[in-house]
Write a structure and sequence with these properties.
This protein is mainly α. It contains four helices and no strands.
């Protein structure tokens, strides 16, 4: 029962502070570079980025 309560509380906290967490993570240059490289491996995301950046 205690694990369930901790899981629900953790999920709520992650949901409530999701934008702060994302801003903190992407504020780190190494992590930002990793996520950009990771997203450029996905063809759909890469095509959308290239189309917006150069058109």
């Amino acid at each position: 029962m205690r694990r369930l309560i901790m899981l629900v509380a953790g999920t709520f906290a992650l949901y409530r502070y999701r934008y702060r967490i994302v801003n903190f993570v992407l504020g780190q240059p190494e992590l930002r570079r990793f996520f950009i490289q990771l997203s450029m491996r996905v063809p759909f995301l890469r095509d959308r980025f290239v189309n917006r950046a150069f058109h």
